[in-house]
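Batch job 17 of 40 flagged for manual review because the log was empty.
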Amino acid sequence: MSAKPELVLDPAAGLGNLLHACADIRDSVKLVGVERDEATFRQAKRTAPHGTKLILADYLFAESGQFTGIIANPPYVKSQRLEYSDAEWRYFDERFGLPLDRLTNLYAIFLLKIWEDLALGGRAAVLLPAEFMNANFGEEIKERLLKEMRPAGLIVFAPELNLFADALTTSAIIFLERGGAKDRQVKAIKASSLESAELFVSDLLGEMASSLTQTVHDLRNFDPREKWLNSLLENEPSKNVHHLTRKIGDYFQCRRGIATGANDFFCLSEALLREHRLTREHIEPCVTKATDADGIVFTRRKLDNLANSDRRCYLLSPRVNGVELDSYLRAGQELGIHERHLPSHRPVWYQPENRAVADVWVAVFSRETVKFILNTSGAKNLTCFHGLYAREGKTSLAPLLVLFLNSSWGRIAFSKVNRFYGDGLNKLEPKDVEAMPCPALPAQTAEQAKQLTARLIELESVRDDKRRRIMDSMVAEMLDLPVIDDTEPKQRAEAPDAPLPRPAKNLRRTAPRKRRAVPAQ
């Protein structure tokens, strides 16, 4: 608004909250809001600023014209729920001049259209999830950002700064400007408070160039194929990553865990086995919840402890038929289990996915500490864990890999590939795990692997901070890596102890909207 635009557009206007914010700054501005949901559109006639021109249309397929100002909080809809036809995807490809990944989220398509509708000299501020910076579909978007859009600035809010209680996502704001210098710096920061975001905007406007205390990145130095968030959210880039010359995928294949489609039916405890008179020939041992596996090594003893505690640590996987099994399956059919999505798409609805026992488990979600667990129990795992399976000739490397992943070096490796969500939540996909950097892992004999496994089990009884130091020393000796200095800044995976600054009262909170095929209320 400091550029005094004559005409401001909100392409996903909702009830007009963002347009109100623009009118508060400059009451003479002409406002236009586009909204595709009829009920929301009717309500917006009463709630949007007086004099706003409201248009009932799908912005992505509308010829909206050129605007000197655009303010947007685009809808957040995953591709699986968009239901666009092949013809509509081809329309987007041709309109924006790039082959869009068919997994592209709706907000990213909005960003491309907003740039197209921005007039020469115009500015746009777009609030959206930061997900695209790490997602595979985001590569085309990031390449367009660098080669054509060259935004004036980008803010990524720290994941632990939970700005929007109803949206579990890391938020970002992109500041676009048509007609800026082609070689200008593309500034990007991590904001740990709304106050720091305000200072960054002031810096972009040339109002207080020396007030920034955050690290300012230049996106021109970034590769569209890399995960930008992992660089932007680090307090300080790792100086040691060049020691990690290989990828975990060189040694192990990563696969997601078993998906049942109805855990309450397919996952059984000892008590349920007795109740339904099922035998060991009807089940396989399986860890069904991430909280059921802890420490560094999941042993047969730990599995037995789960069973004795009557935890659901068995997966229905019948190898024989019989009256008891038939009775249990009939009960499932009465509940409609066989008609649910996953069971109904299996050759035999009650037989689980074919998965071998994984050598290593990797927790899908984490907050402070990521679980990397050596599995010696013989148990399978559900989707709470990804499974690592040693490639041919690499079986004895599993204990060595688990040692590395649970060391300080493992935290550095994790910080290069993880995906960030709101409220400090991290997530790993199988491809992320395989892409995780690691050192060259020297060959191990079966006896060496056995001895290292025993040592890892011993370390489980050692206090966390002391155990980390011991493991760092072991990594230095066995993998020829330097010991990480204790004074080195901790990785982002560790949440700060100090409370975060409270958001500025004068900034409105508008979360990236999650919608189906229509705008949110």
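Reviewer: the log was empty due to a logging misconfiguration, but the result itself is present. The two ends are 25 Å apart (CA to CA). Unflagging and moving on to job 18.
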